[in-house]
Amino acid sequence: MIGLADVPVDVGRDEAQRAAREELADRVYQEAQPGLVERVVDWLADRLADFFGVIDGAPGGAAGLVLFLVLLVVLVVVVRLRTGKVVRRRRVRRAEVFTGPARKAAAHRLAAERARAGGEYAEAVREWFRAIARELEERGVLDERSGRTADELAAEAGALLPGSAAELRAAAVLFDDVHYGGRAATAEGVERLAALDAAVRESRAVAT
């Protein structure tokens, strides 16, 4: 956060905008949503321009410093509240793996292969992760339970398949990011899931 020592006493528009950009470079603002930082900085610059236009010719000094700090504090509070809502919404959207009619692991696997061949990587990610989940249920590694989330599946299966635990966690994150977070899927991500599927089919669960 910006302190009094970081802001020049004689505040000008260039100095104020530079200080605002340094504050808004914080990672929490960058993660809020695309374009948010730019819009906030533009808004702040406009407010400062209005202020300095009003007091043009009058001594700035402490008055300019106080107003700048007030504006910046308001911005910090608003943006952090907005960011908190985004984070909470992402957490809520981590929903269950399966939706719709139940299908066998082979059916999900075939759908994933077709999606990969057609360049539909997001669909391939969804179907391959579901193929892994259904395979684990069909083999009795996991019990068949509706409403299981990707994170829960990775934790439960990882305890029984320690050799694949890290990849299961990564696969769960990828599934959530693509299916619920709107992240663009890649061919590399699809291939990683395909490799995990093959590894899971050949692995043996350990006793817990």
Descriptive overview:
- With 208 residues, this protein is mainly α.
- Helices cover 67% and strands 0% of the residues.
- The protein is built from nine helices and no strands.
- The chain has helices at 13-24, 27-30, 36-54, 61-92, 105-117, 121-138, 150-160, 165-179, 187-202.
What global shape is seen?
elongated
Mean pLDDT: 75
Structural class: mainly alpha
DSSP strand content: under 5%
Order of helices and strands: HHHHHHHHH
Largest sheet: none
SS summary, helix count: 9
Segments where pLDDT lies below 50 for 5+ residues?
A: 1-11, 27-32, 85-93
Helix content: 55-70%
- Estimated radius of gyration: 25 Å
* Whole-number total of structural domains: 2
Distance between the termini: 47 Å
Count of beta strands: 0
